[in-house]
Design goal:
- The chain has 162 residues and is α+β, with helices and mostly antiparallel strands.
- About 4% of the residues have low confidence.
- The chain is built from 4 helices and 7 strands.
- The strands form 2 sheets. Strands 4-5-6-7 form a 4-stranded antiparallel beta sheet.
- Helices cover 31% and strands 27% of the residues.
- The chain has 2 domains: 76 residues, no CATH class; 82 residues, no CATH class.
């Protein structure tokens, strides 16, 4: 991954977990740095390795791509999501469903599965693999899957999704 891809992915994740993003951070702009500033609200948990539990960072301070302490709370947030959607069942009918998500992480692979409720037993879509990301190491796989999921989620969410 390039530095730009990492910065874009970290920005996407920070917004997903509730950080307010402004660009550029005023005094950094005066110093010639064009960078984003991320402010985490008081009611949001911050990763345990934030320096002095700071609630604000510039983009190089975000460690979603390199720290399990930062990345795993995002995985947990995704697994706690419920999302409304439509599912086609074997009869061809389109049904309203709620989707939930589960990660499967093993070796250098990460898959995110989508489950629907109510379940239409016998349907292949009950266990839909959304992302299959194989990389050089486990963290890169999980990071890439999270970025791909959030991109998909942002394109498909409705105002009632939790």
């Amino acid at each position: 991954m390039t530095t730009q891809q990492i910065e874009e992915g970290n920005k996407l994740i920070a917004e997903f977990v509730g950080a307010k993003v402004t660009t550029p951070y005023p005094f950094n702009k005066d110093l010639g740095y064009e960078t984003y500033h991320f402010e985490y609200p008081a009611d949001k948990d911050v990763p345990t390795n934030y320096p002095e539990n700071r609630r604000s960072h510039v983009i190089d301070g975000l460690k979603y791509h390199s720290s399990w302490d930062w990345l795993m709370p995002v995985v947990e947030k995704i697994e706690n999501l419920t999302m409304s959607g439509k599912e086609e069942i074997s009869s061809g009918a389109i049904e309203d469903v709620d989707w939930s998500f589960a990660f499967e992480i093993k070796d250098k692979q990460c898959m995110i599965h989508r489950y629907c409720s109510p379940q239409f037993y016998g349907e292949d879509s009950d266990y839909l693999k959304l992302y299959d990301c194989r990389n050089t190491n486990k963290m890169k796989s999980v990071y890439y899957a999270v970025v791909q999921f959030i991109t998909w989620y942002n394109q498909n969410k409705t105002s009632t999704d939790k």
